[in-house]
Specification:
The protein has 132 residues and is an all-alpha fold. The chain has 7 helices and no strands.
């Protein structure tokens, strides 16, 4: 898989956090890889799961950062798709040295166009611009 496809898979796995208790997530991870639309190599699986686990471990900090930055919005009020995209992008901007800030923002906007509502890409771009 290329980087964009890997990021999309991380997004899909991270999205499950919104609908499952923390203790259910190991089972959800296993289920996610069983249901994968296409065969995922062991290398790709390790990348996806590792990145998901790193983000998951920092969710409290990431949400605090989003809440401080998204003026007039809180993570409680955001759409689940937008919130998941923001969490992934903020992680990449602040904690993943392998992903340049511009790439993280661009990829987040593309995810918002693909999975979000009509205004999602503008909302995501506006929030992430403040992180840049």
């Amino acid at each position: 898989m290329n980087r964009r496809e890997l990021r999309e898979q991380v997004f899909k796995l991270l999205f499950r956090v919104e609908f499952n208790a923390k203790e259910e997530m190991p089972g959800q991870c296993a289920l996610f890889f069983e249901e994968a639309e296409s065969a995922v190599s062991e290398k790709d699986r390790a990348y996806i799961q590792g990145k998901y686990e790193r983000i998951s471990a920092l969710l409290g900090r990431i949400d605090d950062m989003i809440n401080r930055t998204a003026v007039g919005w809180s993570t409680d009020r955001m759409g689940k798709v937008d919130l998941t995209i923001l969490r992934l992008a903020v992680y990449e901007i602040r904690f993943d040295e392998d992903v340049p800030t511009g790439v993280a923002i661009n990829e987040a906007v593309e995810l918002a166009k693909k999975f979000g509502q009509d205004g999602s890409s503008g909302f995501v771009n506006g929030v992430l611009a403040k992180f840049a």
